[in-house]
TrEMBL record:
Compartment annotation: Cell membrane
Family indicated by similarity: Belongs to the DcuC/DcuD transporter (TC 2.A.61) family.
Name under which the protein is recorded: Anaerobic C4-dicarboxylate transporter DcuC
NCBIfam families to which the protein is assigned, alphabetical: DcuC (TIGR00771), DcuC_1 (NF037994), PRK09804.1 (NF007317)
Gene Ontology molecular-function annotations: C4-dicarboxylate transmembrane transporter activity
Pfam families per the UniProt record, alphabetical: DcuC
Length: 388
């Protein structure tokens, strides 16, 4: 399986096929059945596909819909230019700083803030290259240092709107807002500050070492078709609505906080009105909304299918007794939950480096965590956070 993924075979197909094969092996070797005996059809292949149907139904209606809604809104923000407005607004204060390596570190922090709302790594990187890369180079920072900082702005996948965060929260059995504010934000803040400080010293040291590097000026380009700067609030609107609903629920003015999908749909509706009152063109406004649905489809094809494939693979591992073996091994070796957590985090990190993507390994192993955590008597979130 690892060989096929390394050779750039579609991970969804590889994981699903491996999971089906493992489920069949588990039954043939006598480890157990795929379904509860009371729900079994009596035919192994039918039971396997009934289990896949259950996974698809559960994921698409719950986690999958949240991921698709977030992806759709992000695509819509790109279509109407709100992402460009946000980058243009947030990059302005940086241009007032004259110290090259302070602005270099600040670029990383600002990039991480932007990554909360511009969830496309390539999209954010392109916007930063157009806006901040020329500024950094003009201040005397080498091109390599400038690119290094911009390239690492999406190295931390965090935030309410980030698909792996939504998936991790689901695996941990909690709402995304709870996962983000209580667990992810404190850890991510420490990491961001540490990396920003490291960039200051490391990039400065490398630039001093490469004294002969060519510091020619980069061409300063303006973002094309930037809408009014008040559009910068639109990518932030889901977070504002989420925080607002949390506050209202806390003071008793709402029964509970808003569901993530409801937040995205409300934000979409408000943005549609903003677009219409700006353009006074109903047809164009409605045509642009198609980007929302296109984004949902892209997320389904690339992310939701990977989540389901990872769950199929995890079910296969469970069927052949992998979870029980991990729990027994941890108990006998004295590793405990923390030891298993470190090992699994290292496995995912190595796989991510080798494969060039962390999605496939994370979603493959994350589905195992609830059962492993329960067997080791530790909270699932304690194990899922380092893996994420």
């Amino acid at each position: 399986m690892g060989y096929l993924i390394l050779k750039n075979y579609k991970p969804q197909v590889v994981l699903a096929a491996a999971g089906i094969f493992l489920m069949m092996c588990g039954v043939w070797l006598g480890f157990g059945g795929v379904l509860d005996p009371t729900k079994s059809s009596g035919y192994l292949i039918v039971d396997i596909y009934n289990e896949i149907l259950r996974m698809l139904s559960n994921r698409i209606a719950g986690l999958g819909l949240s991921i698709m809604a977030v992806g759709g809104y992000a695509r819509y923000m790109e279509r109407i230019g709100a992402s460009r407005a946000m980058v243009s607004l947030l990059s302005r204060p940086l241009k007032l700083i004259r110290s090259p390596y302070i602005i270099l570190s600040a670029t990383y922090v600002i990039g991480q803030i932007m990554a909360q709302f511009i969830t496309s790594a390539s999209g954010l990187g392109m916007l930063l290259m157009v806006t901040l890369f020329p500024t950094l180079v003009s201040l005397g920072v080498s091109r390599l240092s400038a690119v290094a900082v911009i390239a690492t702005t999406m190295s931390i996948e965090w935030g309410i709107l980030e698909t792996n965060s939504i998936f991790a929260a689901q695996v941990a059995g909690m709402k995304i807002a709870t996962y983000f504010f209580h667990y992810q934000l404190p850890v991510a803040s420490c990491v961001i500050i540490s990396v920003a400080i490291s960039h200051f010293f490391v990039q400065r040291a490398f630039d001093k070492k490469d004294k002969n590097i060519n510091h020619e000026q980069a061409e300063q380009k303006a973002l094309d078709n930037v809408p009014p700067l008040y559009y910068a609030i639109l990518p932030v609107m889901p977070l504002i609505l989420m925080l607002g609903s949390l506050f209202l629920a806390h003071v008793g003015l709402m029964q509970s906080e808003l569901h993530l999908v409801v937040v995205m749909l409300l934000s979409l509706t408000v943005t549609m009105f903003v677009e219409f009152f700006r353009k006074h063109n109903l047809r164009e406004t409605m045509d642009d909304v198609q980007a929302f649905f296109d984004g949902m489809g892209t997320q389904f094809a690339n992310v939701v299918t990977l989540v389901v494939a990872g769950e199929i693979f995890a079910k296969g591992l469970t069927t052949i007794g992998t979870v029980d073996a991990v729990i027994r091994g941890a108990e006998h070796s004295g590793l405990g939950g923390i030891g298993v957590m470190i090992i699994m985090a290292l496995v995912i990190a190595i796989c991510a480096i080798v494969m060039g993507s962390g999605n496939a390994p994370f979603m493959s192993f994350a589905s195992l965590i609830p059962n492993i955590a329960a067997g080791l008597h530790v909270p699932a979130v304690v194990m899922i956070m380092p893996m994420h």
